[in-house]
Design a protein that fits this description.
This protein is mostly helical. It has one domain. It has helices at about 5-40, 45-65, 70-100, 105-125, 140-150, 150-155, 155-160, 170-185, 200-220, 220-245, 255-260, 275-285, and strands spanning about 135, 190. The longest helix is centred in the N-terminal third of the chain and has 33 residues, at about 5-40.
Amino acid sequence: MISRSPAEPSRWRRGIVILPSAFSLGNLFFGFWAIVSALRGDYSLAAWLIFLAGVADALDGRIARFSRTGTPFGIELDSLVDLVSFGVAPAILVYKLLLESGDWSWTLAFIYVGAVAMRLARFNIEQGGKAHFHYHGLPSPVAGVTLSSFHPFSQTAFFAGHLSGWPWTQIIGGGMIVVAGLMLSHVIYPAIPRLGLRNPKGRFAIAGLLAGVALLLWEPQLVVFPVGLAYITYGVARAVTLGLLDRLPDRDPLSEELAAEETEERDLEYEDMQPHWASRSQSGDPANSSGNDEES
């Protein structure tokens, strides 16, 4: 048998806990880099850095759920980081691209950033920083990535041939206000289903992820902006349709009871994660080593 020091499990646990925060800091790194790139005039790089920040933001939450290491600290850190990457960075990019010539056009960017800040604060209060099945209002990462991806989309041949004559300064400026309103609205947006093979939603999520990766590899400039617009439009169209039909949901989409029934998340108790050899060494009784094996 290989002997291990009692400090070794603590190092492993600390590493697991730090991993989601490391992805959050990676999100912040991409967001700050995007701000610097936008100020330097490298708008394409700034747009793709915000997209990478969105990828890092999606991964940190999934890693926290997978490793069951979600903490209040991680939730607060994620919100602060999102304000930079999906609030300030897209606002500066759009301002430098389209709004810099106006004396007061920067107020559009400020309204957008303010909406992101209030959206994140409300998200932490209402949903505890975790969306189990639905978002109450448009998620700020979707808003930020969609706005920033306009510039790569505008560099495509399709845009040059069919859309270049549109008044895009007014469209994007007004779009910032619309997106800000949707983030603070009561419109319900679906969360991305968990990946898995045990249920149809999980299999559908895997198929959607693979299709999305294939589209990004095929023509990323032509995909991200329209997909973001489609997601934003879907929530609005669904809300309008249900309103016209005078239909109410069968149950509260933000219900804590619903989340408790179908989610696997729980608060992490580090003492319950001790391996068999550590339990035996502390209790001195081999029979006690299986006390927490049923924890899931």
